[in-house]
Structure of sucrose-phosphate synthase:
Amino acid sequence: MAGAIIKLRFTLGVPEFMHILAIALGGCLRAPPVRYGITEDTGGHIAYILGAMAALARDPRVTRADIITRLFDDPALSRVHAQPREAISAKSEIIRIDSGNRHYLAKEDLARDRAAFTRALIEFLRASDRRPDIIHAHFADAADVARQVRNELGIPFIYTAHSLAHDKAAMMQNSPALAARLKEEDRAIAAADAIIASSRDECERQLPAYPSARFDRIHRLRPGVDVADVRRSDLIRARRLVEPFLRQPSRPMILAIARPVHKKNLVRLVEAFGSSRELSARANLVILPGLRAGVKRGEAEHREVLIDLVDAIDRHDLHGVAAWPSRHDSRQVAAMYELARRSRGVFVNPALTEPYGLTLIEAASHGLPVVATRNGGPSDIVAELEHGLLINPLDPEDMQRAMLRMLDDEVLWQRCSRNALVNIGGMNWRDYANGFLSIAQEIASADRTGTTMRPRRMLISDIDNTLTGCRKGARRLSAFLTRKRASVGFGVATGRSFVEARRLLREWDMPVPDVLIASVGSEIYWRTGRGFRLDEDYAAALAKGWNPDAVLAAMDDFPGLVRQAPIEQRRFKCSFLADGPDVLNRVRDRLASRGIAAKAILSHDRLLDILPVRAGKHAALAHVAAVLELPRDRIVAAGDSGNDVDMLAASSQAVLVANFHEEVRGMAGLTHVYTARRSHAAGVLEGLLWHERRSRTKEAAYVAA
Ligand code: GLC
Ligand code: MG
């Protein structure tokens, strides 16, 4: 029933009114200021929820953005948690549901009152005159609640996991508790109408590893970053935290901030720092290992790690160069990043594995370069923000090398610091709210049928620098495609992965494509009535004779070539960074000399992909044309750079946007290629219309003759 209402509202394309409800059960959730760390579970997810809901409430398309949590009565944790309602802003409040159990419950005990909580919440929603249109569940336990609410009331829900147990399970002995958590996460993944995660690693590696995951329900949406403005008084207070430990506080600061648990690998960082003469002679090591009241109090694991930490400091005689303050507030933490940057220092996250890596984002927001574990989220955060170096957390020498490089190489340090500040600008709550609303809209319109796409003509366009680059042009093209939906099909062909392609299309307000050719034409996804379907026939054709291990072996230690991040490596795509365009021919020679059937494609002078011979954007386009039984002269292909060449060369109607890369200049002279006067999406539209006019004239001439 609620579904029907949403559908009506959404038929015009833009969600006009939206009532959003977030659910989170754990921690001390309250209107700001939040006392982070007051309990173990009062952490990052609360900042996420408050930031997200505040931005949604500011959006004029949103009528309400409320937050549901548990009511509990524990004077030590503030009376506010016993208040059934707490206003945040005019359009947003926290609603506390009384399950009957008024104790504060830690994460592992929350299951105890879940059934009662769920019943009470459903009662509350039934009684209220305004039902939410969509629920956003935070963590798997809230997803379980949301699933039951949907069963009763038909409200769809989005799930955000925050910190998946998948990698934990791979690292540790499988305990029954962990197994239960994995199961619960899998249930949440199975039930959710959509899943939102922050990093590529979560979207493309961790989530798909769950048995119930469906790739097309997973969306990447980056949370905003609230850059804390650091006051002078905060800097002074932060300095006071470390000065008692340090002989020369002005040295470059190597900063680490993490809870004292084994997987954060702090002790190995001390070992790496302490066993390098150079590092301990030139820099200070500052660790903020959570809050503590002595090393003999608190949880067993915390005690163990803290004792190992002191022990390592002692053994390496790091007194005077290592600081590990016991108490700090959030303003001092922000100021510490700032002090580290001013000292020309570096932030280090040495974790064995990290689901996301929020501290790397915080460091970036202060312009502080990082050295981070290559396992988990950090590798794609660093690839995206380009503000640091990755290390193998098991290898102290690797850690030392990276830290020293950051301290020694002024040009590198400056570049990382600048990149951090520029690239972090793309992570803001306004964009998050926009993205959230379009995902919600997609869910609401997901039950539309119509798998039988029979366009008369079709556009297949590259994404980066072809569709993207100019907002105004993108809006015009998008409006054109939406208007012509019935007759002009829309497809994209990109070097990006499926998840990233969808994120970019969403961020650029492009229509959902009918077909999505991803990973340099090595994967094809068809839009169906309810999501996307991988083209298995195409995959089967590519699999014949494809041996990625042989490719990787042949490229091992190849001069001038390094592998792109693990997340960029796909089933039919091995990707590298080349140090210049002349690597291409040497790579081709090497493949030939090893008798490996594969094709190498270079884009932007430095992105090198090796694919099965039968893959590539052109091959994928030809496959799409065959499936749709669309004559080739009914497809217009548009692009701008190296990996578009085969597609542009072989299409009978091609468009080169004005901002094309030098490496495709040769294409511009070909008769079937229209070189647009405009750049980016405006150029695509110009080319599309040009080809349309030309084929009409041709047809007219044919009819007349
Ligand atoms: C995208 C991909 C990358 C590839 C490049 C060129 O940027 O993420 O792996 O090398 O396109 O095709
Ligand atoms: Mg491009």
